[in-house]
Amino acid sequence: xxKAYLRIDDSPSEITPDFVDxxxxxxxxPIIFAVGENIEKHFDNAVYALQKGAxxxxxxxxxxxxxxxxxxxxxDEIEKCETLLDKVYECAGVKREHKLFAFPYGNKGGQNKNxxxxxxxxxxxxxxxxxAIQFDWYKQNGLDKxxxxxxxxxxxxxxxxxxxxxxxxxxxxxxxxxxxKDGGALLQENSNHIILIHDHFQTNVIIKDYYKTLIDYLxxxxxxxxxxxxxxxxx
Length: 235
Prior knowledge:
Largest sheet: 6 strands, parallel
Shape: globular
Strand content: 5-15%
Order of helices and strands: EHEHHEHHEHEHEHHEE
Radius of gyration: 17 Å
Number of helices: 9
């Protein structure tokens, strides 16, 4: 069996309600990492996602490259989004049980990485429980120790917007790649994953309901999406 958490980045957008309705029908609980500026544009959609059972974490306020920020700027990016998330949870009437953070682009802040990790720890951020993930590269890169959330497989469907030759077939090739350059082989038997997909209106223009098409494909390929767990211990 292949088990996975579903991670969604860059929410909310115009398509968020349809996205989370689909997941609710499939009984999939996603970990959504929201961008503060997108919350400001689509606040009600973020509230709706929470009320439909999603867990929403912090993906910064403006989605910058953290390696280009000072520590003060990095903290400001996180805290601005935190303020908005607290409002979203309050309006949704949902208790915020876990504070989660994921770096845009997976860029952990360059020379400020350790300081940001300490900041997240001091502020009580939780980790996605990735105990079951056994890929060597994941542990060699310390991803099982960092407080921020990462992924094991990125569908990279956002590249459909780039007009660079990346197609739906390119995504399928990634899914079936037994020796990927980055991340773990998705369809490796008895593996555990955090699968990343994005909440982008622009991708939906290219492939209508792309999230349904891709997630249905993964399910048919043998992936079982499980409810995410979180932890604070062992830092």
